[in-house]
């Protein structure tokens, strides 16, 4: 497919799972009605970004309520859904995981966040590893539209991860994320644009809408960047659907004109 | 050393080598008078960025006229000089090479550009490999002030190169470069900021001043970014000395608070 419309659902996340699922479903259906063939949700879209909820809201694949809603909605709307992320239970472990469904409702793949957010900024400390387990795989996911790579939030800080996805064929890298009020203004746009330019891919950052009353306040500002690093869609902190036009012919043109992926000195790295 | 002043000499480059050397020398001495203990020159500061001059202006190390001027000026001013780049002859080959001198005039190291600029943009085509040979080493260079990494122009497009320099100890990555009027506005600031954030290093981009009459028109806009990705010094396209304050304590603080270099999943890349 030479191009397609992708919808980013910048949704509010509450501490009520049912409300979150209803909001997500409504926004996904709205994206389909707006002509999107792919729709993307933010990180932890069914659960507040807080240790006290991760285990409580976690679901086993493939039978969880959230996973079921995503599969049903994909089939009903006839679109590909990149399900942001949710807490996924697997035995004793809980992962920060993204589930991807095709327009027939079939599960096409999963990415478990591989880099956990353990930081001690002056104004904000968080240790995901207190409650979450890191993933062990970096694999792109094939959909009817293209090859997607998924990088969840802190994952995007690691150029090696997006490079690995790119070398394995990803053309659009989706980043469900909840950057905060410190790292968001400083780095969110920069990192998404830089990964796009370095790898000559589209990057899509999907954030939750901002809730100033939450214990962890998300930056919002979902955006998409093209392979030349231009921002092709952006929004502010409020809830809403953002639409990006993905043009895979433009991607090929950039790779032909400035062939950085062919110029890598793999003999020296 | 916890911090030091670094001067970026955004100099005009002409087709007269003697003029270029005199300009460079004057700006380096000016940087020393302004309190800089390190001064940086742009890419191909002694030679127009054009195939017809690279071989003609090339010099053998360590006896060339340009290399001699840099050594003498470093000693006279008592500063470290990162000599941008010049065409360096070695047998039949000509490299795009940077020579680094300590305050005693001693040669401390050399970086030969490892990624040659071979591109075919709609508005600009260039094939450095028609006349130049790529370098074969990625090694940081120790000076009295800190550990520097050097990436020459197109080198900065490769995250692996700056990562390699960082993992080998570089804390300040200097980028002598001549981005052009297409790639400059699109990517120059983005790449320098992103490499700084990804690697939690200072990045220093040293460009020649713009000459609108040249066959290859440089963007100018020398700048420096700190390890949090903030631009700490920037200029426009005109000739001038730009001073950046390098604060290695701040660098350590960033690395402690957001320890991305420790979080890399080297088991997966």
Structure description:
The structure is a homodimer of 269-residue chains. Chain A is built from seven helices and 16 strands. With 269 residues, the first copy, chain A, is of the alpha/beta class. Chain A has one domain: Nitrilase/N-carbamoyl-D-aminoacid amidohydrolase (4-Layer Sandwich). In chain A, strands 1, 2, 3, 4, 5, 6, 7 and 16 form an eight-stranded mixed β-sheet that branches. In chain A, a hairpin with a 5-residue loop joins strand 14 and strand 15 (231-234). In chain A, helix 1 packs parallel to helix 3 (65-77). Chain A is globular, with a radius of gyration of 17 Å. The mean pLDDT of chain A is 97. At the A-B interface, strand 8, helix 4 and helix 5 of A face strand 8, helix 4 and helix 5 of B.
């Amino acid at each position: 497919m030479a191009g397609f419309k992708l919808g980013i659902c910048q949704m509010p996340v509450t501490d009520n799972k049912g409300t979150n699922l209803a909001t997500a479903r409504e926004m996904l259906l709205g994206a389909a009605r707006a002509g999107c063939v792919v729709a993307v949700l933010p990180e932890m879209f069914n659960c507040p970004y807080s240790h006290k909820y991760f285990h409580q809201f976690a679901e086993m694949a493939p039978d969880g309520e959230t996973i079921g809603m995503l599969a049903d909605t994909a089939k009903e709307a006839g679109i590909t859904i990149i399900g942001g992320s949710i807490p996924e239970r697997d035995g004793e472990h809980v992962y920060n995981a993204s589930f991807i469904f095709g327009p027939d409702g079939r599960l096409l793949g999963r990415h478990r966040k591989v880099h956990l957010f353990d930081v001690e900024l002056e104004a904000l400390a968080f240790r995901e590893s207190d409650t979450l387990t890191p993933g062990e795989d970096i694999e792109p996911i094939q959909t009817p539209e293209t090859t997607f790579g998924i990088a969840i939030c802190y994952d995007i800080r690691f150029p090696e991860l997006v490079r690995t996805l790119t070398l394995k064929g990803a053309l659009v890298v989706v980043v469900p994320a909840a950057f905060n009020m410190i790292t968001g203004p400083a780095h969110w746009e920069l990192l998404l644009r830089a990964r796009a330019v370095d790898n000559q891919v589209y990057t899509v950052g999907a954030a939750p809408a901002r809730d100033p009353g939450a214990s962890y306040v998300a930056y919002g500002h979902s955006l998409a960047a093209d392979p030349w690093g231009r921002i092709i869609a952006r929004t502010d902190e409020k809830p809403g659907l953002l639409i990006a036009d993905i043009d895979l012919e433009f991607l090929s043109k950039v790779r032909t004109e400035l062939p950085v992926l062919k110029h890598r000195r793999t003999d020296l790295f």
